[in-house]
Amino acid sequence: MTREARTEDYTRAVLRVPDLALTLRPRPAGQVSGTFPFDAPVHVVTAHNPGAERPGPAENAARQARLEAELDARGVRHWRSVAGGEDGSHAEEGALVAGLDDVAACALGAAWGQDAVFRWSSTAWTVLACDSSPSVDLGWEIGSAP
């Protein structure tokens, strides 16, 4: 899968955060619906499927556990998240992380081999590239988790 195709997958991903009972769906840029529940932007980082690699469920779970242990060791507040297709056909666990700026979030994503991380703010749902590729701003709609 090409870098461009992977970025397009990011733009269609629905985010579920069970502990916060919320589901975030991407919308066209500029369209925001719902109440942003944080004081500052948050990021979503995963250790699953780095770049073009697809290591399989056991390795992805082990990588994600190491990422979450790293966040715990650094004292970074985070919640388990799942991002993927609306229909559930593809899903990757991740962490919704509070307290990082874009540079730190991208550095963390890059350290885990990711093309991008998500940034969620009151005004946009952004696919924030971890390299020199362009980022993509989208809108968002928030609802209750199913």
Structure, described:
The protein has 146 residues and is α+β, with helices and mostly antiparallel strands. The chain has one domain (3-144). It contains three helices and nine strands. It has an eight-stranded antiparallel beta barrel with strand order 1-2-9-8-7-4-6-5. A hairpin with a 4-residue loop joins strand 1 (14-17) and strand 2 (22-27). The N and C termini lie far apart (30 Å). The model has no long low-confidence stretch (mean pLDDT 91). It comes from Actinomycetospora flava. This is DUF3293 domain-containing protein.
User: Gap between N and C termini, in Å?
Assistant: 30 Å
- Give helix % range: 25-40%
SS summary, helix count: 3
Tell me the Rg in angstroms.
14 Å
Structural class: alpha+beta
The total number of structural domains is 1
Number of strands: 9
Largest sheet: 8 strands, antiparallel, barrel
Compressed to H and E, one letter per element, the order equals: HEEEEHEEHEEE
- Please, what is the average pLDDT? 91
Strand content: 25-35%
Shape, per Cα inertia axes:
globular
> How would you write the strand order of the largest sheet?
1-2-9-8-7-4-6-5
Low-confidence stretches: none
